[in-house]
Amino acid sequence: MNKLEKQPIWTQGFISIFLSNFFIFLAFYGLLTSLPIYVVEDLGRSSVDAGLIVTIFLLSAIIVRPFSGKLLQDFGKKRTLLVSMLLFTISSFLYLWIDNYALLLVLRFIHGIWFSIATTATGAIAADIVPIKRRGEGLGYFAMSMNLAVVCGPFLALTLLQFTSFSTLFLTLAILITIGVLFTAFSKIKEVVRTAPIEKKRLQLQDLLDGKALPIALVGSLVAFTYSSVISFISMYANELELLDAASFFFVVFAVVMIVSRPFSGRLFDAKGPNIVIYPALGFFMIGLLLLSITHTTFMFLLAGAFIGLGYGTIVPCMQTLAVQSTEHHRSGHATATFFTLFDTGIAAGSFVLGIVVAQLGYETLYLLGGLFLIFVTFAYKFVQNRKKGSPAPLEWRESSL
Question: For 318, which DSSP code?
Answer without folding.
Answer: H
